[in-house]
Design brief:
The chain is mainly α and 244 residues long. 81% of the residues lie in helices and 0% in strands. It has nine helices and no strands. The protein has helices spanning 3-25, 42-76, 82-95, 97-124, 127-155, 157-162, 168-173, 175-195, 203-237. Helix 4 (97-124) packs antiparallel against helix 5 (127-155) and helix 8 (175-195) packs antiparallel against helix 9 (203-237).
């Protein structure tokens, strides 16, 4: 995301926070654990924010992965024949798919969960019934991403054979549990924010804030964690002797 876009999102968050405090001071009551046609439009916002959030986290994953491909290719260029280097970097490029897929699947499930949650909430009249399904989608995402990382690591077997390091696959594979911890922690934070909605004073903006926190933390965490995987590969590549 560009610095201008980040600044815009931050500015919007500040404006919403100020507006919320103003409404509280003039006597607006809490949202309460109720859902009906007076506030159900907030779930259209949740669907939109969820779609955008998953797209941004997915973009962060792809961007960090592409940095790894570029940097590894640069290191291997003087050390391996071009066709060998190309095969390895193509393998690395394709290896992202199993880790990327859980995010794509969860994005679709989240949208469906917002719809089914809204139906359940309108039927019961309870806001908490509406938020439970999307919360559950995020709570399962960490394990799915970690399982995808295992498949990614397995697919990279030709790199483990070509790069000199006995524990390379093991060290790279250890990135998966770190990604799971990231997504689990942010899912718990999102669940807490959803549970706090009845005590809030602006349902729509409280939902937007919760989604902002989730995607910003996940995007930043993915970039940092996957970059560590890039460093593992690049450092192993540098152990290869340069061609004479």
């Amino acid at each position: 995301m560009s610095s201008q876009h980040r600044s815009g999102r931050l500015g919007s968050s500040i404006v919403r926070s100020i507006a919320r405090r103003v409404r509280e001071r003039v006597g607006g009551g809490p949202t309460g654990d109720r859902l009906d046609t007076h506030n159900d439009t907030a779930f259209a916002v949740l669907a939109e924010e969820g779609e955008g959030g998953f797209s941004r986290v997915g973009a962060a994953l792809v961007s960090a992965w592409e940095v790894g491909i570029t940097d590894l290719a640069r290191v291997l260029e003087p050390r391996l024949e071009r066709d060998v280097k190309n095969r390895l970097t193509e393998r690395l490029s394709d290896a992202l798919v199993p880790t990327q897929q859980p995010l794509n699947d969860a994005r679709r499930r989240f949208a469906e969960a917002v719809r089914t949650g809204l139906q359940a909430g309108l039927a019961s009249g309870r806001l908490t019934d509406a938020t439970a399904p999307p919360v559950a989608v995020l709570q399962g995402l960490g394990a799915e991403v970690a399982a995808g990382w295992v498949r990614t690591t397995d697919y990279m077997a030709p790199l483990w054979e070509a790069l000199p390091s006995d524990d390379l696959a093991e060290r790279f594979g250890a990135i998966g549990p770190r990604l799971q911890q990231l997504f689990d922690e942010e899912a718990a934070r999102f669940a807490d924010a959803m549970a706090a909605l009845p005590q809030g004073h602006d349902l729509q903006n409280d939902i937007i804030d919760a989604c902002d926190v989730w995607y910003q933390a996940c995007s930043r965490g993915v970039e940092i964690t996957v970059y560590d995987g890039r460093t593992i590969l690049v450092e192993a590549g540098r152990l290869l002797p340069e061609r004479t």
